Every structure is written in C-alpha cells, then in structure tokens.
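Question thread 4412

I'm putting together a teaching handout and wanted feedback from people who do this every day. The idea is simple: show students a protein as raw sequence, then show them the structure tokens that encode its fold, then repeat with a second protein so they can compare. Below is the first pair exactly as I plan to print it.
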Amino acid sequence: MKAKWTELVAALTLAALCATPVLAEDLPEVRIGTDGGYLPWTSMTPAGELTGFDIELARLVCQRMQRSCRFTAQPWEGQIPALEQGKYDILVGGISITPERQKRLAFTQSYGNLPINFAAAKNSGLNGKSSWTELKNALVGKTVGVQSGTQSQKFMDNELKGEVNVRLYDNQDSLNLDLLAGRIDAALAGRSPWIALTGSSQGETIEILSPNLDFEQFDYLGVGVGGLMRKDTTELRKAWDVALCQLKKDGEVTRISQQWFGFDISTKADPKICGE
C-alpha cells in the first residue's frame, strides 16, 4: 500500500510539473542575424549599434512575445549557412520571400514589400525609360554592380546574363561607393537603399531608374519580405507571426515604415494567420 501511495504522489507531482506554464523569462533568448549595411532595412550607427526598419520592428516583436532577443551583424552571404547551422534562430533585413528559399527554409508572414530598381548617375543617359525592354537595351555593354546572393543578382542572372558586365559586391555600402565614384555605369538593388542614397547629400547626382521591377512581372522576385527561419522552429515562427498580426493591427508597422522609408511599405495581415 505504501508503495502504491508513493507511486501516486510521484505521478501527481509529475502532472503538476507538466501543467506549470513556461514563463517568457524561462525561454532562451532569440538569436537574430542581420546585415548591418542595408539601409534603411538595417544599418550601423557611428557608435556601432544596429538600427533600421527591420531592427526596430524585430525589437517590437520581441517585446510583444516577451522574449529576450540578441542581434548579430553578419554579411548577407554567410547568413543562411549560419542559420542552417543553428547560429541564429531568425534572419531579418529586407529578405525576399521566394519559392526557392521556401523549399528548405520557412518564413514568417510578409510585413513589407518594395520593388527592385536600377540606379545610375543623372547624366548617364539611362534615365527616362518607359519599359523594361527599353532600359535593358540601354544597359547592354554597360558595367553594372549588384550585391551577391540577393534577388537582384538573380534578376541579373536571369535577365541580363551575357548582356552586361556584372560586378559583384559583398554589401550595399561598397556598391554605393563605386556607383558614386563612377567605377560602374549602373547598379541594381531593392528600391529602399536607393531611396536612402538619393536622399543624402552625397547621392544627389544619382537617380532611381524606371521602371520598377517586381513580382507581378518576374515571379521569382517574391511577394514581399519576411523573417527567415529553419523549418524546425515552428513555435517561434507562430509566436513571431502572432506578434506581427498585433503590430499590423495597431498600425505599428505602418508607423515604422513611414519613419524609415517616408511612405507605407507594410503588407496586409495574412488572414490564414491573423484571421479575417
């Protein structure tokens, strides 16, 4: 009888332990990888601190989840391998949601969307084109820069391979410097870094070229940007998405968009996740 009573007590104790809720402070910190040189998505202050649209949004998500989060800056080329190796739990920084990436990794719901654009000096002769065909013909034989490992590089590979001289860069800052110095004729990137560059005093000689290039014309460019995770981080992804639903509803994503871009880049809440 004593043995049975002991077994019963042990069973009840185990059940109580299992029923105890896991508090936010008991959960491990969320390790966030990002590129510190992709303004206005992410950038570094002179003091060496990360800032930008994605950094501010991720901090708000962490607050809503009541989770501690730690950011680490790393060049884009090494981020996905580091994520897959378990160094990070999520990557943020203007990362396009594409079918190719979704085959092996998972995204949060989209929270923003911008096209990609070519940029060039105002006196380049590449300005004022009304269609992609017209701009493509004008680019033939030119030297064009692009950041490696991005959707912009994929666009170059798909649409301009053999037509232009491609120069690859590790980060947006280096790409900007060569464009400003005239070492390349044009450059391709998401529209957001060009907004930042052309809005600065040093970028007053640079112009964003028409037309906008987006998912509607080139489906491989993706339907927006989101946080990138491994497929085994289901619980974190659900919590992140719930926080994004709340932030979209409260207008916080719109507010941060207007702060960093000058207009609203936010996407609508995903009804499959947030409800109607």
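The second pair follows. I'd like the answer to focus on this one:
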Amino acid sequence: AKVGDRHDTAHHGADRGIGMCFDDAALHEHLTVAENLDSAALARHEPPDRRTARVNSLAATLGLSTLLSRKPATLSAGERRRTAVGRAFIRSPDLVLLDEPFANLDRGNRFTVRQMVRELQRSTGAMAIMVTHDPTDALAIADDMLVLINGRARAHGPAVDIAARPIDIEVAQLVDDLGMHALELHGDAAPAGCSISSEFLANARTAANSAHLLLGLRPWQIRAGVPQKPAISVDARIIAHEPAGLFTDVIATRADGRALRARLPAREAQELPTTGVARFHIHEEDIHIFAAPWPGRRIR
C-alpha cells in the first residue's frame, strides 16, 4: 500500500501515519478516555507533556474535556464514538480509515460526530477513507465516492456527480436514501396504470437508440395531481402516509403491484385519501433515462 510518496508496508505500524476508527469503536475498556486518546500516540515516544497537551486540545474540540477520567463503560454511544474518532486523528496522520464511524448513533449525535470528523480532517489535512452503508453520511462527508456492488466497483467519481447522475439504477438506489423507482418500457406499451407523453417517449428512444428503456423516478421528485404537461402520470392506490417532518412519504401500490413512494409537502399529502386511488406525475427534466436491460446504462 502506498500513501503519498511512500510504501507504508515497509514501515513499522507505529510509523505508518495511519489512524483507524472501528465500526464498534473498539475502545480499551480498562483505560480512561484520556488514556484511550493517548494510546494511539504512545508508540511514537513523544514527551509526556506534549502528549498531554495534545489530548487536552483534542478533547476540547470533541467536547470530551469533562470526561477524560471516565472509563468507556460509563459513556454514552455518542461519547464513545467521539473518543474513537479522536483516537484516529490524534497523531495527525496522513491517512485515516473510518469503518462505519456513525453506526448506532441517534440523529443528533450522528450530525455532531459527522461535523467533528469534517473539522478534524480539514485541520489535520489527513486523507480519510470512510466505509458506510448510509448514503446520507457518504454525501455529507465525501468529496469522492466509490460505489461497490457485490464486491465490484460500479461507480467512482465526485460524490455530488454520482448522486445527481447515477450510472445505473442500482447505483441510484444506493446513493439516495429514498432510492429510485424504475419503469420498464417495451415497444409502444406503457406499464399498467401509467401514461407517458408520446413526445418524451420518442425523444428518449432516439437518445437510447432502443425501444427497451428503463425510466428512473426519484420519490422526492414525484408530485400528486394532474399538471398541464406531465411527461409521466401514474395512478396508484394509497396504502399509507409516513410523516417526515415538513414532508410526508405517501406509500402507494401501482397497477402492476409494485410500490410507489412519493415525498410530498405535508399539507399536500393530507389532501390525499389514505385508501383511495391518486394520480402522481413527474416532469421530463426530473426523469432519468437508462438503456435496458437491468440495471440499465445511463443515457440522460
């Protein structure tokens, strides 16, 4: 393995300039918070006063100053995670490996620890590699993203680009926390319960040079009602409302039995009957076009 201009496998572990944060925090249960933070720097044989100053400075950044004498068993999940993150960065490493660093954290702690990781990464200048199954965490932290599916690299590039223009539908379903619906088109027939603009369909087939298409629909871009010129309209039977603060996820079943999720403004969702059939639509500019077969190849 090469980090920067050196091959780190040729160096002793203590000299490799690599920090590690494990998915279960992996704190030393017999040590205090201060000793856990300091443990990553012990092998460098720095003077005790320098190590103490470094621990105190990092603890202040992480909000751990009042907890330095505590043992891990007395800490909350968020406090344990902050200690583990601090230990990974305390040596100002060249590379930090973060394995599910926000696992098992509630919403508030997740936001706080994410912010701390960003601040530590920027202040130390370390390159960070994070493994996560949560697309929200990945997009909040990452500059570049590598998407693995079945152990193989499927997409790699700037995180914002992969999220905005996923290479196929499986990638889209992984990098968006609401996923992506797929409509499969064969010939001239639209899926049951769907109406597709003939002009849009002709343009999509021309772009793909095929009559076999996959159309990707993101739940947060689906709207209810009948606009003047929708590219796609879908009739679906509503089965549930899932409130999400200012928005509500409306869960429905399409005519072919497949689920449809639409994230709507809460007031708009309240107007839809819980057990009735509603019409949903999506505009042309919000539709992702892929050449079939599954999982598709991005056309537009």
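Top answer:
Good format. For the second protein you could add a caption like this: Residues 176-298 form a domain with the OB fold (Dihydrolipoamide Acetyltransferase, E2P) fold (CATH 2.40.50.100). The chain has nine helices and 17 strands.
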